[in-house]
Amino acid sequence: MEMLILILLAILIVCVLILIGLVYAQSKKQNDRILMTKIHQQDQKTREELYQKQMRETFQNLNGQIQILRKENALKAQSIQKMQTDLSSMNKVMTNTKMRGNWGEYQLQSLLEIYAGQNPEIFSMQYGLKNGKVADAILRVAGSDKVLCIDSKFPMENYLRIEEGKNQQEFIRLFKMNMKKHIDDIASKYINEQTVDQAILFIPSESIYQFVCGKCTDTLNYALERHVLMTSPTTLVGVIFTLLASTRDFYRSAHIEEIEKNILSLQQDAHRLEQRSQKAKQSLESLVQQFHSISVSASKITKRMDTIIEGREDPE
């Protein structure tokens, strides 16, 4: 009977232990589930915070790009506005005869100053003649008191109509009439006893000048007959260079004796410089030799002093 009680007691104990183990296992599993839930919630919160941070940074970058685009658009708008203003100003210059004339005179003066310098011995602007006419510019001819007059003309209206392609023959005829009138005005105003027997008609537009040379040869020949030379900005530079070269040649010829005298004087100076350099070379060589002798003597004295101090026999 006691044995049975012990067995039942043992079974009861085992059951209690099993029950405790099950309860513990269930509790641990519940705790693990709670812990995993907390960890998942924490990860979810972290991910949400990271996502929000990324969204804020992305929004800030987009906002920055939008601001940059706005500034660029504002600058482009200003540039377009300035371009429109400049085009409008240029259009006013090209459509107004007086302003075109001012532009031609400005271009003429700029070319002369660039290639001839600020040299009143070569050219002058707004030069008054004895007949009361004022040339846009004059070139001075070396060895003569006469001047070569330059007048700027900008025949634009009929040329633009020709370029439009409508009634070309009629506008070409009108263009030639305008050019002949300019040629006659220049020949009558700027060729007289105070000037050389030629004058220059300066056309500030290369395209108009090429049109005259290519399509209006009769006008070009008429100008030559009237002793009027047509030039564009490019060909005027050639005239300036030719004048500068002839001016240099004239002054060289006029001062040839003085130039030869200066050359002979320079030759004598060169010979004297050569002689003095030879003397300086000889003196330098003598000085080097003396320094060498001094060095040898000093070396001998040093050796003798070392011998005496060390008590050795004097080699000499």
Quick structural overview:
The protein is of the alpha/beta class and 316 residues long.
Give Rg in angstroms.
52 Å
Helix count from the secondary structure assignment: 8
Average pLDDT, to the nearest integer? 77
Beta-strand share of residues:
5-15%
Could you estimate the helical fraction of the residues in percent? over 70%
How is the main sheet built?
A: 5 strands, mixed
Q: Give the distance, in angstroms, between the N- and C-terminal Cα atoms.
A: 142 Å
Structural class: alpha/beta
- The 3D shape can be described as flat
Instruction: Please report the total strand number as a whole number.
Output: 5
Low-confidence stretches: 86-95
Strand order of the largest sheet: 1-2-3-4-5
Spell the H/E element sequence. HHEEEHHEHHEHH
Question: What does this 3D model show about the protein?
Answer:
The protein is of the alpha/beta class. It contains 8 helices and 5 strands, in the order H-H-E-E-E-H-H-E-H-H-E-H-H. It has a 5-stranded mixed sheet, sandwiched between helices. Residues 86-95 have low confidence and may be disordered.
Topology diagram in text:
Elements: H1 2-95, H2 97-116, E1 123-128, E2 134-140, E3 147-152, H3 157-164, H4 168-190, E4 195-202, H5 206-215, H6 217-225, E5 228-231, H7 233-254, H8 256-310
Parallel strand pairs: 3-4, 4-5
Antiparallel strand pairs: 1-2, 2-3
Helix pairs in contact: 1-2, 2-7, 3-4
Structure keywords:
alpha/beta, 5-stranded mixed beta sheet, 8 helices
